[in-house]
Design a protein that fits this description.
Elements (H helix, E strand, L loop, with lengths): L6 E6 L2 H12 L2 E5 L3 E5 L11 E6 L12 E3 L6 H11 L2 E2 L11 E4 L5 E4 L11
Parallel strand pairs: 1-4, 5-8
Antiparallel strand pairs: 2-3, 3-4, 6-7, 7-8
Length: 129
């Protein structure tokens, strides 16, 4: 293997707020922090380990408009409807991007408006290494 994805970097106005939100959504914990950034990942993970981490990086001039990449999440311990309720209670909000209403997924946004999808299939939880 030549390369591996070690982290997904998300520019944002409030790294602490988004790190807290995504820790709640994914069951992640904070791995590192400095004055501007927050790195999160599965419990027991480290930068460069077997799991991709999320780095929330302060940027006071975030890009506007739809980005060509987004995050998909799946519930691990409940059905999609129950997980949707949990995500909305954590601060997610529904987003209309032109869905027909026949989709098997829900389009949501995190507290700063970054779109992500809640898919229907339940998957096994991440295991810490």
């Amino acid at each position: 293997m030549a390369c591996k994805i070690t982290e997904l970097v998300i520019d944002c106005a409030d790294p602490a707020r988004l790190a807290d939100f995504w820790c709640e959504v994914l069951g992640y914990v904070e791995i590192e922090r400095d004055a501007e950034d927050r790195l999160i990942g599965p419990p027991g993970s480290t930068f460069g380990g077997p799991h991709v981490t999320l780095l929330f990086s302060r940027n006071d001039d975030p890009r506007r408009g739809k980005l060509p990449m987004h995050i998909d999440v799946n519930a691990t311990d409940r059905d999609q409807d129950a997980e949707l309720e949990r995500l909305l209670a954590a601060g997610a909000r529904p987003v209309d991007i032109g869905q027909t209403g026949n989709e098997t997924w829900h389009v949501l946004a995190d507290p700063e408006g970054n779109e992500f999808c809640l898919l229907r299939r339940r998957v096994a939880p991440n295991e810490a290494t």
